[in-house]
Amino acid sequence: MELAFIPSPSRGVLYLGPIPLRGYAFCIIIGVFVAVWLGNKRWIARGGRTGTVADIAVWAVPFGLVGGRLYHVITDYELYFSEGRDWVNAFKIWEGGLGIWGAIALGALGAWIGCRRRGIPLPAYADAVAPGIALAQAIGRWGNWFNQELYGKPTDLPWALEITSSADGRVPGTYHPTFLYESLWCIGVAVLVIWADRRFRLGHGRAFALYVAAYCAGRAWIEYMRVDDAHHILGLRLNVWTAMLVFLLAVTYLVVSSKKRPGREAVVEPGAEASGGAAEGDDESAGESKEDEAKAEDKADDEAKDDAESAKKS
User: Fold this and answer.
1) Residue of 65, 172, 224, 238 with fewest CB within 10 Å of its CB?
2) Which of these, 67, 118, 122, lies nearest to 97 by C-alpha position?
3) How far apart, in Å, are the Cα atoms of 67 and each of 109, 122, 146, 179?
C-alpha cells in the first residue's frame, strides 16, 4: 500500500457554461507568456527594442504548434489512422500530443520569417529566447498531468504518480511521474543557459545550442523510462534516438561556432542604437539650449546694471 503519491486530477477540463477550460491548453498558454516575457527582458539587455520578441513570437508560436502536432501525428499515426480510429482526432490538439522536435523545427522557421521581416539575425533572437523556451516546456509538461498521460514505469516511491483513468489502455496504479522529471529538468536547463550566457557571453546561437544539448541529455533518460506506446529502433524508442542525434548536432554547432565566430553580436537589432543615439543627441541639444539661456540671462543682467549706473550718473 502506497503511503504517499502524487494524485492525478479527476478531470482535465472544466466548463464555464458551454465553454470548456482545458488544463493542457492553459499550461501551453502560460508557458508561451513566460517565454515571451523572459525573452523580452533578455533581448532588451542585449540591445534590442521592447516588443520585438513578442512581434516575432506571433510567427514562431503558431508555426511551433503546427510543427509539434505534425511530429506527434506522423510518429504516432496509428492513433488516428488505423482501423477503428477517427482521423478527425488528429486536429484535436487540446487533448494532448505535441512533439517538441517538430515544435522547435517549425517554430524556428516561423521565427526566421519574423526575424527576416525585421532585419534581425535569427541566432541572436534564438539566444535571447532559449531559457524562456525551456521554462515554457517545464510549464507545458503539467498539461500531461491534467490528461493523465506520458507517465513512466510502475513504482511505489513516495512521489509516484497515481493514475486513476482506465481509458485508452491505461492501467490504474502508481507510476514514475516522468512529466515532473522533465519539468524539473527543463527548469535546470533554463538556469544553466542563463548562467553560462552571463559567464561566457554566448553569442551567434550558442546559448540556444546549449539549451538544445542540455534538454536532449535529459530527454533521453526520461524517455527511456516511459511506458506509453512508441516506435522502437534497435530496441530504443524513436525519441531516444532523436534526442541523441540532436544532442550531437547541438554540441557540434557549439564547438564549430565558438571557433569560427567567437564572442557575441555587437548589434542585434538595426536601429536600436540609432534610437539611443538620437536620445543622446536630444540630451546634448537640451544642454546647449540651457547654456544659451544662461548666457542670455547673464547678458540681460549686465544690461540692467549698465542702465542702472547710467541712471545714477544722470
Assistant:
1) 172
2) 67
3) 10, 18, 22, 21
Return the amino acid letter for 143. G
- The span from the CA of 142 to the CA of 178, in Å, is 10
Cα angle 204, 104, 263; round to 5: 10
Give 107: exposed, middle or buried? Use CB within 10 Å, 0-12, 13-18, 19+: buried
Q: pLDDT tens across 231-290, in order?
A: 888 988 989 999 999 999 999 999 999 999 999 998 899 887 655 433 333 344 444 444
Q: 105 with 4: CB under 8 angstroms?
A: no
Within 10 angstroms of residue 11's Cβ, the number of other Cβ atoms is 13
- CB distance 38 to 135 below 8 Å: yes
Cβ(71)–Cβ(102) below 8 Å: yes
Check: CB of residue 269 under 8 Å from CB of residue 49.
yes
Residue appearing with cell numbers 540651457: 290
Question: pLDDT tens, 291-309?
Answer: 554 555 555 555 555 554 5
DSSP H helical segments within the chain, as ranges? 23-45, 52-75, 78-81, 100-118, 122-140, 142-147, 178-200, 206-225, 238-260, 272-313
Interhelix angle 206-225/122-140, nearest 10 degrees: 30
Gap between the Cα atoms of 142 and 63, Å rounded: 22
